Amino acid sequence: MNPELWVVAGVSLIAVGGLFFYMLRLEGRVRDLENRE
Amino acid sequence: MNSQTKKPNAGGVALWKWLLLPLMGSVAVLSYTWAGALPEFQSPETARIIFWHVPHAILSMIWFFTAGFFSLRLLKNGDLKDDTRAEKAAEVGLVLTVLATITGAVFSKMQWAGGLNSPWYEGYWQWDPKQTAILIVILIFFAYFGLRSSVDEAHRRARLCAVYAVIGAVLVPVLYYTLPHLPIFSSVHPTKVISTREGMSPEYRTVFWMSTLGFLGFSLWSYQMQVRFAFVAERILARRENAGAEVRVEAVRRPVTES
Predict the structure, then answer these.
(1) Which chain A residue's Cα is nearest to B226?
(2) B87 and B148 in contact (C-beta within 8 Å)?
(3) pLDDT tens digits, residue range A13-22?
(4) Is B105 exposed, middle or buried (CB count within 10 Å of its CB: 0-12, 13-18, 19+)?
(5) pTM value?
């Protein structure tokens, strides 16, 4: 496979991982707020 | 709800949310490794944008329908929580529509405008009927949020926006599917790529639906977070207003009781 495609796949993987961990952090914050209420 | 009787939410993150990481991770890798180029496209390698562009467009419509559904429910029962749900669904739909437009613009440059052989600033916008239609959808729902911010009274705002959102939700499939396929418009958008068996190879089809499922999960998660946050914020504001009212009542009563 073209090495450039591996680079693009890696960037996509990082983007997906970043989105996932951002959502996880957001979930934690909302739960904190609900518990503190 | 009384804060003394409310149980703290100590539960972990739901399993379906954890599954999004391997699912979308697989999409990111498989779309460039397992699903090959599509030779029938002008730029076969960049046909992979389908895995990102088309799910956004499909899901945006689903979220606008969701906004329409909650708006109809609000018109029926008058519950302001349905107004919040409709607003958040429309927000998720709008974000997905903007993403579909951006990825579509890149697709347009790569497939219809010579790709990287053309000047860097050319080819993103063709005024193709579907591009124009998605732009109109964006404007319709930007106007929805404009309407929301222009009415102060909550019940009136909710009813007005609900009627608007229902009309918007009805217009979306007309704009996405019916208008661009009318004979008076000539669209360069490929048709029957998703809807027919010949449109995509089995590998492409598998990765495409994995991607759609993954983005559905992420958008549902985002919607859920926004609604939960909005409900908490509403409860906090209501409590503050109640506390403020009690202080004002106390301030009026005090001179009477003291005399």
Answers:
(1) A30
(2) yes
(3) 999 999 999 9
(4) middle
(5) 0.86
